[in-house]
Amino acid sequence: MKIIVTSIFVNDQEKAVKFYCDTLGFVKKHDVPAGEYRWIALVSPDNEHGTELILEPNNHPAAKDYQQRLFTEGIPVTMFGVDDIESEYQRLLDKGVKFTMKPTKMGDVTIAVFDDTCGNHLQIIQQ
């Protein structure tokens, strides 16, 4: 068994596509209408057949509440691995990304946390 899809609730799918693709560097694998919303699946450009990240609309009250509570508490909704956190941190800063935690060593890993502009905190990690 393996993970093939995971999702993140976003408050604006179009804004999320721009941030996750243009700023973070993911690529669209699927973008199809799904009622009033879209089924948007992103993948890493290094692994286009890998795990898909779905940009899920937070239109359900439970999803919206869940997302807002995690954001208010500063809890990242997911974690993305990077090879060089310092260079990735600088690259994202140069693109205007707002970090809530600069790269911080925690045992054998270094992490940083930032705002995705769509209602979430995300974490990058170098192992």
From TrEMBL:
GO MF: lyase activity
Keyword Signal applies: no
Residues in VOC domain copies: 1-127
Keyword Lyase in record: yes
Family annotation (PROSITE patterns): VOC
UniProt KW keywords: Lyase
SUPFAM superfamilies cross-referenced by the UniProt entry: Glyoxalase/Bleomycin resistance protein/Dihydroxybiphenyl dioxygenase
Protein known as: Predicted enzyme related to lactoylglutathione lyase
Organism: Ureibacillus xyleni
